[in-house]
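>> received
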Amino acid sequence: MAPVFPPAIPNIDYGGRIRGVLKLQNPQAPKQMNVPGQEITADMYMSGQVHRYFKWLVSVEMSYKGVAGESQAGAVEPLDLIARFEPMPEFNIYLGRMLVVVDRFAPSGPWGVDEFFFPGFFPLIGPPALPKAGPIGRDVGTSIWGAPLKGHIKYYVGMFNLNNPNPGAHPPSNPLFNARLQVSLLNGEPNWFHRATYYGSKDLISAGVGTEYQRGGSAQQPAPPPAAGMPAPPPPKRDDYQVVHGDVTAEKNIGNAGTASLIGEYTKFIGDYNPWKNFMLVEAGYMLPEPIGIGKPRISARYQRALAQPPGAKASQVIDVQLSYLIAAWYARLGLGYRHGDSWLAAAPAATKPSNMLYLGVIVGDP
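>> returned
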């Protein structure tokens, strides 16, 4: 008999979303809030399937960050480029460029977090206090993940940094291994992506642990090239890189009393040459039970603290307070907030530098 192929599945989904923020902060004197600036980020994404087991996802990010009176600069770069094999909810294989999942916030992304600024970033400091990944939290590799018991349990196991096989490169190109195990009570979270807050649409008590490991992944910055006739500097020293992470999330819809949310997490970075030693975050939010006008107000406060690696370093801290106006939950919302940071800068003379920012953000997306 001639082979019989299943009917075609003409299922292609596409959409877009945009985040924009108007901020008041002086780049030259960051404690002052007297210079307007703007950031805009937009994503375009497409997904589809050619079989109920075989699917794909492609997305691109476009961004602009500028300050009034200065030259404009924009960037376009890929986000997710994933070939997906999904035979069952409990076991899936992804290959391509994708998120490196260790903590809860990575699968939430900036679109699933209520606060406008993604956690782990400190004012005036370059490297974020986040588990290692490539640009925008992505890297080239493969992940095995699943969500047994309708997402009440979820796991991720991956191997990344596979696009450069040169073990002598800087940064090191040995494989980066990651893993996360998450248990969600009350309601499950069955998808690859999830959210940091569900805005009262589901109650949640979730706990997760995660880790990363890369042989030789903690490395000194290479010395600058020597002057003519001078000997070459010694190669950068290396240590193994490892992350140990834990987080807890709770959200409860209290009916006529509104919705309360609480998140806490701690990350330990192991390796002699990492930029950070540890990172912690505590966040609380409350949403009113009834709309005011066309949206629901929500207020949140978030505290972050990270300790840098150099001996004698002081902790960097940042506090965010934000009033959100939720017009269509995640897909149309406004955020008016204040951000204060005390960032320890290692450049001589080492010192803690304060910063202040007032901002108004808007997020609009295709559901």
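>> Residues 105-108 form the longest helix (4 residues).
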